Every structure is written in structure tokens, then in C-alpha cells.
Description:
- About 45% of the residues lie in helices and about 15% in strands.
- By secondary structure, it is of the alpha/beta class.
- Among the domains are: about 1-195, 3-Layer(aba) Sandwich (Rossmann fold), CATH 3.40.50; about 205-290, Orthogonal Bundle (N-(1-d-carboxylethyl)-l-norvaline Dehydrogenase, domain 2).
- The longest helix has about 30 residues, at about 200-230.
Amino acid sequence: MNVVMIGSGYVGLVSGACFSEFGANVTCIDLDQSKIDRLNAGEMPIYEPGLDSLVARNVTAGRLKFTTAWDSVEEADLVFIGVGTPTRRGDGHADLAYVYDAARQIATHLNGYTVIVDKSTVPVGTARQVERIIRNTKPGADFDVASNPEFLREGAAISDFMRPDRVVLGVESERAEKLLRELYRPLNLIEAPIMITNLESAELIKYASNAFLAAKISFINEIANLCEKVGADVHAVAKGMGMDKRIGSKFLHAGPGYGGSCFPKDTTALIRIAQEHGTPCRIVEAAVEVNAAQKALMIKKVRKALGGSVSGRTIAVLGLTFKPETDDMRDAPSLAILPNLIDKGAVIHAHDPQGMKEAKKLLPDEVRYFNDVYEALNGADAVILMTEWNEYRGLDFDRLKQVMRGNAFVDLRNVYEKAHLAGLGFNYTCVGR
């Protein structure tokens, strides 16, 4: 089976590599020549555990190729659109310019029956619009449009693809369903559920799923703030809630708020879609508001830990990315928290195992970056544990006390126990405990 993936970013590259692992012949197309050159040289443009070896193995096997040319569309059985859909400036809608440009290019190269599949996260109605664009660009073309949203967690994307909770296929013809089922046939061995629905439902499943998870995060953060006022422990509350199978324990972890490439963008887009159709999603709106407020509250925690002012204080920040096991800085809490601290006169020392290259593009120039954790901590009045990378879970606290000037430890991920840190002489601050 010949598969073309338009876009070699996070979704396109991971999906294309995994489809080739399934045995399909996959060509990833991207307009960025430098990205294609890097991929052909074996260099990954993103950090995702296991992706480099997966790509290398399938390139060597001849099943995975990277190019800027579109002629491979002519031989394709399925063409996936996996381009970016960033938030559009000014109105919060998803920007579909890249999706529609891809549709026009695909149309000019169609040759025989082809299924064009939206893999990108797109608003309800996008597949219909893609169909219209292709129909107008090349009347008489033999094709179907389908929706196959991705549910990949950064840092665990390959396992999510290979062992999914479900595969959602929005299709409207038996031919399209047959081809997509054949592509995903290797998942039959693990009996992965394949859900068949219409285009609109498939598109909305993705947005609704992410909005619900974002709401869980905002909910537990509000409960965490209440815990601090009434003397409860949010860990105990979340554990007690999570034991209820109707609720579940996942995404009930208090912290500085959600970030990343999906939740902020998708919640905002869903709100706009709902407003356009006269059915506001007030719970989602509240989740977004709570998330913004939570990041502001974290700034107050840091200032309080330092006696009310950060002016002239050196703060070591451990972790910059929005979550561990990724280099993604999009909407990371650090982007909201650190500039504010700098504006208030703080000196920021930063360390992150994978995110510093991207962070340098987005954070103020005043941030100083260190390749060694303890060098970043040297002379610090306070440390902020911003992202719970594994290497921060076993810090040498005797060494911390030796290199730090102060003793404030602000744990925004609740990695450590207050009694333990206090016993070591640290002024420990956490979330909801």
C-alpha cells in the first residue's frame, strides 16, 4: 500500500514512520527543504523517544522516504494531511490555511482512486471543505475524503500509535473504509478498537476528548487551591476521586496548568466553534480561564517563597518544556511564569534536558542556560521545579545546600514531600498540599 503524508512535523513524522512500520510504503512531503535535508541525513527535527531508531529502520528498509516533491501523490492509495493548524491570530479559530493549501496541491496530482485523510486536528466541517476544494480544483477526480484524528501524547507517541485506545475513522464510502481498515490491519493482532463514524463526529471526537482532559486538569487545580485553604491534601483527594472507575486517576495531577501543542489550541478552537453555532461550551470556557489563573497563582507562590519580592534574587528553574520527554515549548507554563519574574527583577538560571534550544527562541534573552543541573543551582536563592523530568526526581539535596545561596524550593509538580524537604532545611512550597 502506498501512503503519502503531507507534513513532516510532529503528527506527520510520527504517523508516517509508524505506518511504514506497519509495512506500508510511506512518502513524507514537506515544503521545508531544510527539514527534509535533516531527515534524509538521519536527524530528527523534534525530540520524541524512539523516533530516531524507528525512522532509521524503515528508511533502511526502503519503506520510508522524505521529499519536497509532490509526484508521489500520483501513485498513492491514501494521502494524509498532517500539517499544522495553529490558533489564528485575532479570533482564536484554528488556522486552516496549510490544510487548504495541501488540498489544492493534492488535487493537481490525483491519478486514480485515492482517499484523502485529515490527520491534523481540524474544526468540524473541514473535511467537507477539503472535498469541495479538491472537487473544484480537479473536477471528475476519483476520491473520497476521510477523517482520522490522532491521539498521540508527546513523549509516548509511538506506543500510543502502536497500541491505541481506539482508532477513529470518519468515512462515507465502503471503498474508503476498506482502504483505511487495510492500512490499520496490523492492529487487529492486539484487537485495537476501530470506530467507524461520519466526518463531523470524527472531527468533534478529537476536540471533545482534549477539552475534557483539559477540564480535568483545571478542575483538580481548583480543588488544589481549595485544599490549601482548608488544610486538605490534593494528593489524597485526587487518589480518592480516581479510585472511582467513573472518574479515573489520569489527569488529576495538580500543577502550574496545562500547556503544549494541543490543549490550549484545541480548547480555544472548540469554544469558537460552539459560539459560532450558538451553543457556548461554558465548562470549556471556564477550564481555559482557570488554566490562565493557575499560572498567575504560581508566580505569587514564588514571590511568597522569597519573602514577597523576587527583585535581585537568583532563581534556578528546573524544566522548561510543558511536560517531560519532549522538547515542545508551545504554551508551556514557563513561558507565562518566567517573563513575569524577570520583569520583577529576578535573575533566571535555567536547565532542561531537551527544551533549551527551543526555549532560547521564546524566552527573554536575560535567561541564562546551563547544561548541568547543579551549575544552574549555583548561587540560587530559590529553585523552581517546573517540569517533572525523571532526573529531577532524585536530586542530591546535600549538594543543593552546598551550592545554593538560599533555601527556597518551589515544587510546582509535587514531586517531593514537604516533611522530607523541611527536615533537610528547605523552605518548601508545593501545590494543594
